[in-house]
Amino acid sequence: MSTSATEITARADDVAVTDAELTVSLTDGRTISVPLAWFPRLMDGSADQRARWELLGDGQGIHWPDLDEDLSVVGLLRGTRAPKRKP
Questions:
Q1: pLDDT tens by residue, 29-42
Q2: Residue 85 lies in a domain
Q3: Residue 12, domain member (yes or no)
């Protein structure tokens, strides 16, 4: 059995962002939680900016228009972090 088929069909239906964590609820009942520190743009945004998100492609991704941040559900399932910032 391949895990890639599961990743392709995974879709987000809700998002919550705290000062420490990004939590994404999936349509299949799973929940993904990752440290907010993985995504510096989200971490640097205000609570209001982080609360304004949109689903992309029927839940395949999440977009924060105020922060110019886009995350894919597949990337979250793979544990992909944002690139580290250069000093």
A1: 999 999 999 999 99
A2: no
A3: yes
Which residue range forms the structural domain that includes residue 26? 4-78
Instruction: Give the distance, in angstroms, between the CA of residue 28 and the centroid of all CA atoms in the same chain.
Output: 16
Specify whether the CB–CB gap between 44 and 68 falls below 8 A: no
8 domain residue, yes or no: yes
Read off the CATH number of the domain in which 73 is found: 3.30.2020.40
Which residue pairs from 60-68 have beta carbons closer than 8 angstroms and sit at least 24 positions apart in sequence? 60/11, 60/12, 61/12, 62/12, 62/15, 62/24, 67/41, 67/42, 68/41
Residue 6: pLDDT band (50, 70, 90) is very low
Residue 82 C-beta-side C-alpha neighbours within 13 Å: 17
In-domain check, residue 31:
yes
Exposed, middle or buried: residue 46 (CB in 10 Å: 0-12, 13-18, 19+)? exposed
- 13: number of Cβ within 10 Å: 13
